[in-house]
Amino acid sequence: MQTTQRPAVSEAVAKSRKKRELIKNVVAYSFIAPNFVGFAVFTLVPMVMAVALAFLSWDGSTNNPITFVGIQNFIDLFQDAKFRQALINTVAYAVITVPLTMAASLGLAILLNQQIRARNFFRTMMFFPYVASMVAVTAVWNMLFNPAMGPVNMILSGLGVENLPRWSVDNNWFICMGTVILFSIWKFMGYYMIIYLAGLQGVNPDLYEAAALDGASPWQRFWYVTLPQLRPTTFFVTVMLTIQCFKVYDIFLMITNFGPGGKTRVLVGNIYEAAFTSRKFGYSSAIAMVLFVLVLIVTLVQFRGEKSMNE
Amino acid sequence: MKEKSGITGGRIAVYVILILLSVLTIIPFAWMLSASLKLNKDVFAWPMEWIPSNPQWANYINIWTKIPLLKYIGNTAILTVVVTLLQLLTSSFAAYAFAKLRFWGRNLLFLGYIATIAMPWQVYMVPQFMMMSGMGLNDKLIAMVCLQAFSAFGVFLMKQFYDGIPDELCEAARIDGLSEYGIWAKIMLPLSKPSLATLTIFTFVNTWNDFLGPLLYLHTDSKKTLQLGLRMFIGQYSAEYGLIMAASVVALIPVLIVFLALQKYFVQGIASSGLKG
After folding, report:
1. With respect to CATH, is domain B59-276 assigned 1.10.3720.10?
2. Does residue B9 sit at the A interface (CB-CB below 8 Å)?
3. pLDDT for A233-278, tens place per residue?
4. Which long-range contacts (C-beta less than 8 Å, at least 24 apart) are formed by A262-269?
């Protein structure tokens, strides 16, 4: 009797434990579901669709069939001069904007990390461009840099500069890109300044004291103490900024309008144009995959770097 | 003695550099404000007049009739409020489970969030648009809600904060007979005010300023958001400098207010969410 009862009891215990476990899971999923369902439907599903779409050809019309074209979209891509130009522009924009913005934000952070009056006021001022509406600030930027009447060129001509730059509409690619890059630094630097300020909080003050005792100059202190100590922050800022540059669209749209003559097109501009102007949805997704791979490379570098820093 | 005077000298230099840099940073806004009170023909007058002698307050009245600015602001305000509320609610809800509950598939689901956090929306915006159009959401404000209300970033930010709250606190509440929902509402939410504030401004600023999302989805004039409406206005009346600047000032004011009121949390939020990556 006893021997047959025991398994029954433990079975009941196991059953109730299983039930409790089930309830626990149901409760947990009820917490996650509201966000996860929205996230899965509106983010995860489109991401998977983006990958699939890159191998298809479709004009978006329900009357026309969707056809599988294999890697044809990617073959077309590398024969497309517009794409090559967009890729070069996007990468060039990132390669120049990232270090300059980093230098500006690090410089600001170091200035604003000192014990000075009105420190928060200065920080707030420097930060404001980052939260200001892109449409509004590009509108004023375009007026300031208006080639014929803008105050910037008025000042330059007052200084005796002949051949005034025509900024966002200049035929010289460097000047056009330079105008956008200058704007980007102004817009982004406040955000990364805050990240650098947080990084500076983590620098051990004893190190500065030791450096001062050794008679290090301010420059040496910066070079041999601050910079090495900030390495994780710098690394993080590089990754964030690079991704931010790769996905640029609105800055170019509103400042150069990808002109003159499409000289300053960027990847996301091409994605948009291929989909909504040319209605080549598969082709547009192939461009998006190139953006995806660029971001993936940057992210993998970050993982690698974080790992090596933690070791 | 010498050391001390050197420090004050350096200090003055720091102030001078800072003031110069702040002026440079802020000049576009000052110019915007000044131009918003001028006649079109005076906007580019040189040498320029920072404070207009004959301020055109009419610019600030005319923009409301020239474009349906009130409608745009109304749309944007509704959108921003709904998105922010949904974002706060669903993110903190999900984050609680990820931080404090053990359940089947937890790591896998969280990996789904983490893996996509760095992926720009631009990569999948086209298939997303096709899917939403298929669902009949094209040219509907609700599409913008679906787009922005469920972010990986929100869950991540809230989870990081909840991870810092000791498990013993939840354990004690469970023993006292509080349900998991009760713990979330009565213990976690009140404790997480700083990160809720951070998420509020991030979401508010992003939704208020979003341009590319509305550009894709909203076509009917009565459904447009402020940024989109402003951009269309600039395209149509590119020579109405005074009005463009006045409308730009109006578009900036709500963000300025929210930013100044909550900037402490903003700075903390960037610092904490940023460094952990």
Report:
1. yes
2. no
3. 898 899 999 999 999 999 999 999 998 888 999 999 999 999 999 9
4. A262/A82, A262/A85, A263/A85, A263/A173, A263/A176, A264/A89, A264/A173, A264/A176, A264/A177, A264/A180, A265/A82, A265/A85, A265/A86, A265/A89, A266/A86, A266/A89, A266/A90, A266/A93, A267/A86, A267/A87, A267/A90, A267/A291, A268/B122, A269/A86
Residue A299 lies in domain: 75-310
Q: Residue A173 falls within a domain, yes or no?
A: yes
| Closest by Cβ to A44, choosing from B18, B112, B120 | B112
The structural domain count of chain A equals 2
Q: Which residue from B194, B201, B185 is spatially nearest to B83, judged by alpha carbons? A: B201
Q: Rounded CA gap, A98 and A237, in Å?
A: 9
Give tens-digit pLDDT for A80-139. Answer: 999 999 999 999 999 999 999 999 999 999 999 888 888 888 888 898 999 999 999 999
Residue A45 and residue A83 in one domain: no
**A66 in a structural domain:** no
- ipTM reported for the complex, 2 dp: 0.89
DSSP SS3 for A101: helix
**Secondary-structure breakdown of chain A: helix, strand, coil percentages, each rounded to the nearest 5:** 75, 0, 20
Tell whether B50 is within 8 A of chain A (Cβ): no
Q: Is A286 found in the same domain as A180?
A: yes
Contact criterion met (CB < 8 Å) for A154 and B46:
yes
